[in-house]
Amino acid sequence: MIIDPWSSQNYEYEKLFENFGISRFEREMWNDFPSPPFFFRRGIVFGHRGFDVIRNSIKNGKPWALLTGLMPSGKMHFGHKIVIDQAIYYQKLGADINIAVADMEAYATRGYSLKEAEKIAIEEYILNYIALGLKPCRIYFQSKNHHVKDIAYLLSKKSNLSQVNAIYGFSGSTNMAHVFAPFIQTGDILHVQLEEYGGLRPTLVPVGVDQDPHIRFCRDLASANRLYSIIPKEDRVGIFVKVDDNIKELLDEAEEVIKGKGSILERKDDYKAIYARVDDLFSLDKELAEVERKYDAYSFLLPSSTYHRFISGLDGNKMSSSRPQYALFLSDEKEQMRKKIMAAKTGGKISAEEQKKYGGEPEKCMIYELFTYGIINDDKELEEIYGDCKNGKMLCGQCKKRAYELISNFLDELKEKREQARDMLNEYLP
Ligand code: TRP
Ligand code: SF4
């Protein structure tokens, strides 16, 4: 199994934990956050890498950054909305929000010009983000940010063709701009830790699970570029210098840092190592990265990620703009939307009679899935629908009508806000 970020595949989510080492996003991760949103409560955000660091920053009121990206291709649909729902929530919790417009990736992999990509990004995505409630934050274009491109280029030295081919399955005929897209994405993710953008701090990248290869790749590059590595072992931790220059100085510097954080057990210059007892590994890591920067190293802390499940299209496969008849777009006209809803795959029985007798199957129903993805926010209301469907009290016609009305109100309101959003664009774009 390989995850291809540029294809539209269906995922067996259970396998991702074992095959790729994604951690489960358990209830304990968010239970005590203020008003936990539907995407946590309903398991839509289901996996993560290193979210504990973000969790600690939230709990302790420490600064952290969120960075995510949008691919300016096609129209924005309900599947794209979930990442912005998350950004809006974290923004309320105090995160510094950064959004990359992946115009270089759209150029490299979808054949858009940068100009076309810019237009799509603004008209289809950014206006909707503002309309959905994203407050002023930083939105930038990959092609216009030289820090992003510098990181991509400089860190590419830590990688080679075999590595990218193993992750992405590129072939001899893959164009080089496409091959370079993951490096640019690494630039997106890491550049927020440069001094110009707030410095070394925890960074969360909330994405759909198709983006995990980029996250793995970025984390590999970030750690390959460090001068120190920290390896915890039972009750002690080993701090190793990974380079051949300035070894003594780097060990001296590390000693200083460790003294402020715990106690040194042993220093072994011939192993380029210090063994110590330290409680707060994250802050040790951060201060060591600061030392590295004094030595001109391009050092970054490992970014964290969360993964959300994709919303299904109305036919039950992944929602995608390439199959518009089964996707719900944020700019759909009501009549268009009504037709799609009415034709959606449900978990209903072939006749009303049978359904009354045996009940429906909300687990297999696209209308029910839409409800869970935020169309209905109240858990009690959702439970009621589930129960009424299961025991045959409610029929699909009724249920679809309800979905139509709710979505129709939502789209009306959004359209109005989208019009007002245009005047606010300059609070988001540089
Ligand atoms: N590759 C992402 C997509 O296809 C877009 C993207 C670009 C991105 N840079 C990013 C996502 C950084 C998260 C973080 O949708
Ligand atoms: Fe889906 Fe509603 Fe029909 Fe149940 S009654 S299968 S939830 S549309």
Topology record:
Layout: H1 13-20, E1 23-24, H2 38-41, E2 45-49, H3 51-60, E3 65-70, H4 78-92, E4 96-101, H5 103-110, H6 114-132, E5 138-141, H7 146-155, H8 161-168, H9 176-191, E6 203-208, H10 212-224, E7 228-233, E8 236-241, H11 247-259, E9 262-268, E10 273-278, H12 281-294, E11 304-308, H13 334-342, H14 352-358, H15 366-375, H16 379-390, H17 396-421
Parallel strand pairs: 3-4, 3-6, 4-5, 6-11
Antiparallel strand pairs: 1-2, 2-11, 7-8, 8-10, 9-10
The structure holds tryptophan and iron/sulfur cluster.
Residues 346-348, 360, 362, 365, 367-368, 385, 389, 394-396, 399-400 line the site of iron/sulfur cluster.
Please tell me about this protein's structure.
The protein is an alpha/beta fold. The protein is built from 17 helices and eleven strands. Helix content is 47%, strand content 14%. It has a seven-stranded mixed β-sheet, with helices on both faces. Strands 7-8-10-9 form a four-stranded antiparallel β-sheet, covered by helices on one side. Helix 4 links the parallel strand 3 and strand 4. It starts with 12 loop residues before the first helix and ends in a 9-residue tail after the last helix. The structure holds tryptophan (TRP) and iron/sulfur cluster (SF4). Iron/sulfur cluster (SF4) binds at residues 346-348, 360, 362, 365, 367-368, 385, 389, 394-396, 399-400. Iron/sulfur cluster is lined by residues 346-348, 360, 362, 365, 367-368, 385, 389, 394-396, 399-400.
